[in-house]
């Protein structure tokens, strides 16, 4: 029997929310960024990370963390040129994903149950 999941409701609330936001950001990045800047790397990393979280894989957790952190690091390095409203929203939303992934409840669950 195939146990591949796209969304896992049995995860703790923090990981469940991070998983949902990663899928949402992946779709929005694909629509709005398209072939510019990050290209397809960022949406693929976010979707792959969310898929890995849904299937309780350690690599999924780390891919999700990197996929959420890259845009924040990019916008923080570009602050000298001026951060626009979209940059602030990006930092806020992706920062929330990073906090959800690094929350002690998420870390404990990841250490115990992820393969």
Low-pLDDT residue intervals, each spanning 5 or more residues:
none
This entry's quaternary arrangement is: single chain
Task: Please estimate the helix content.
Answer: over 70%
Distance from N terminus to C terminus (CA atoms, Å) equals 18 Å
Q: Any idea how many domains? A: 1
- How confident overall, as mean pLDDT? 86
Largest sheet: none
Structural class: mainly alpha
Shape: globular
The total count of helices amounts to 5
- Strand percentage lies at under 5%
Order of helices and strands: HHHHH
Question: If you compute it from the alpha carbons, what radius of gyration comes out, rounded to the nearest whole angstrom?
Answer: 14 Å
How many β-strands, per DSSP?
0
If you had to describe this structure to a student in words, what would you say it looks like?
With 115 residues, this protein is mainly α. It has one domain. It contains five helices and no strands. Helix 1 packs antiparallel against helix 2. The chain is globular, with a radius of gyration of 14 Å.
Q: How is the topology of this model organized?
A:
Blueprint: H1 13-32, H2 41-54, H3 58-77, H4 85-102, H5 104-113
Helix pairs in contact: 1-2, 1-4, 2-3, 3-4
How is this structure best summarized?
The chain has about 120 residues and is mainly alpha-helical. It has helices at about 15-30, 40-55, 60-75, 85-100, 105-115. The chain is globular.
What characteristics describe this protein?
mainly alpha, 115 residues, 71% helix
